[in-house]
Write a structure and sequence with these properties.
Length: 191
């Protein structure tokens, strides 16, 4: 069907050039009463039934936009099975090798601040890192320069995009803050 070939060609061409934006545009021009007309000019949607006119067009488009429609007109579309890709051999040290965390506690009685420094003592650049802080030691109410998540008994702290890499001998600083009291030590591990 010609419309499917066009959709595949135009969306496929746009996908090759990552800075080309493609849009499905609905101009409200349709004529369901004309012979041979089964939807709007682009043949995406039938205005009376509100169904995809030619589901193959949508499938042709979706394969170029990192997605597959899960249903078309109420019918489940099977998900294609991905082809296994060989796993490349690691070329870097494991994350956390050569990293260490140092911290300073500022305690004012009704609250506290913990300034944390992650240092790369290895001879290789580290592209990402994770710090885990035991919840028994702190309650994090706010932070800066990091993302905070929770996993079991730990806060899992990960970098922002701009501070994820650490060159050899360099460090990244961030902080956490909480209300209440804090002890003199904090259980911190870096990976």
């Amino acid at each position: 069907m010609q419309f499917v070939k066009w959709a595949d060609y135009y969306w496929g061409t746009a996908a090759k050039y990552s800075n080309v934006a493609m849009v499905l545009w609905d101009n409200n021009i349709y004529d369901n009463n004309s012979a041979g007309s089964d939807g709007e000019c682009h043949r995406y949607i039938d205005r009376i039934t509100l169904q995809w006119t030619v589901p193959e067009i949508i499938s042709a488009i979706m394969k170029h936009v990192d997605g597959t429609p899960s249903t078309i007109n109420g019918k489940v579309i099977p998900t294609p099975t991905p082809k296994p890709q060989p796993t490349p051999a690691p070329t870097q040290k494991p994350v956390g090798a050569g990293l260490k965390a140092e911290y300073t506690i500022n305690n004012w009685g009704s609250g506290y601040q913990v300034l944390i420094k992650v240092k790369n003592d290895s001879s290789s650049k580290v592209n990402t890192w994770t710090v885990k802080v035991n919840k028994k030691d702190v309650k994090i109410d706010s932070s800066w320069c990091v993302n905070i998540a929770e996993a079991g008994n730990y806060y899992v702290i990960t970098p922002m995009s701009w501070n994820s890499s650490i060159e050899p001998g360099a460090s990244v600083d961030f902080g956490i803050q909480g209300n209440g009291s804090i002890g003199s030590t904090v259980d911190i591990t870096v990976e």
